[in-house]
What does this fold into?
Amino acid sequence: MFKQKLIKKAIVGVGCVSILLSSSFLMSNIRVQASTNQGVNLQAITSSSTQKKADKIIASAQSSIGKVKYKFGANDPKQLLFDCSAFTKYIFAKQGINLKSGSTAQSKQGIYIARKNLQKGDLIFFSVSKAGKINHVGIYMGNGKFIHNTTGSTNGVTIGNLNLADYQKRYITARRVL
It folds into this structure.
């Protein structure tokens, strides 16, 4: 009789453990599913946040047209005098994104982006003097347009068209830092 009660208790105990393990497994699956769903929402929120940052960066760069002047090697925010990479560094810093000095150094930040996958706010790099050597940077605006600080017919910030032959042959790479 004592053995039978002991066996019954053991069976009930194993059953309880089994139920506990099953419910624990189910709860962990629910948690994983919930966190996966939250991850998707988080990704959407992050994407939206990144897009807003890109729009602010572009708006800030556009607001500097006619105000910022180009000078090689310059980085003078007080006088709004920059070279191309100091300008991108200045504009991105307003959104809390730290870029290094120099277009070559900036071309190594973030992640590589193929030209066909460009998005607003991506940095695009060109060779404007020595073929194949990065020495100019701009900010992609979408629809083949980019904004950059340059010399030429306009000294200062201007909008360029990436689809023009001159820019197509000088284009080297792009990076996403947002």
Residues 10-40 have pLDDT under 50 and may be disordered. Helices lie at 2-63, 84-93, 103-106, 165-170.
